[in-house]
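call fold(seq) -> tokens
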Amino acid sequence: STGDPRNFKDKQVIQESTSLLWDFLVKYDFPFSLSIDQLRHPSMKDFSIIFEWMYKMIDPKFDLSKDPSNEVPFLFRNLGYPINIPKSAIMSAGAPHTWPSLLAALSWLRELLENEMCIRSGM
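ret:
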């Protein structure tokens, strides 16, 4: 089946995924001011900054447009993310009903980047 096998409605999964994403941001020197609490309920701007920073690991010349609600779902599709991200989810990024699905997408991207880094470093 397509989709994410993890249950992002489960509070435990959300907590673990938030911690793993936080660790990733810290490990790779995320250059913006962000607290773990902000990561639990990010604004659209917070989400956009995190996404853009992560995507720059794939394409260093990448700059997110002024309209991330159009661009982000398209970029995730291009990377092969198996779940459609609606524009409305980006626009209300930190809302309790949308954040888990965006956290799932960022978690997928984090895993993709970590796998890529392992391959590059020959681990």
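The chain is about 60% helix and 0% strand.
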